[in-house]
């Protein structure tokens, strides 16, 4: 019987603790909504839902490109090979696409923060502003951490002489984290932008 990879198991356990962290942030939102419905209604009117939806789609697409990169890594194919279709594309190009989409998402969040600040929604303006920036800011930090992980994974793929199961496992573990931050964002997006 084959034992599960200890790095993958450790990552899953760590992501379980991250679920608890984000659950606390969600609790802030639900408490605020129930205790200050007027403030909630007033401040959510400042949110740019169409822009946030486009930014969310970009992040979800990054999960798709990430998964294609994982499949390439599992085939031990870091580089693009001759052939037709998506199976000819290696892990490295897929992960670069994922990195670019993730960077666009974070840039979009920074742009949204700038817009909200001009509307008077700041970290210290009121409880809603604090809740908004804490939840989305911590998520943006997690996405940034994922971007750094992609750079390290890509660097490792270039540094090794032969791409092996060890490098493929690294790609898979990074994908667990990336899919996690995507799922958390989808839940945050629903809570922040759609619950009025």
UniProtKB/TrEMBL annotation:
Residue ranges annotated as transmembrane are 12-32, 52-73, 94-111, 131-155, 176-195
According to its UniProt record, the EC number is 7.1.1.9
How does the entry describe its membrane topology?
A: Multi-pass membrane protein
What residue stretches are annotated with the Heme-copper oxidase subunit III family profile domain?
Answer: 1-196
The organism sits in which domain of life?
Bacteria
Which subcellular locations apply to this protein?
Cell membrane
Family listed: Belongs to the cytochrome c oxidase subunit 3 family.
Record protein name field: cytochrome-c oxidase
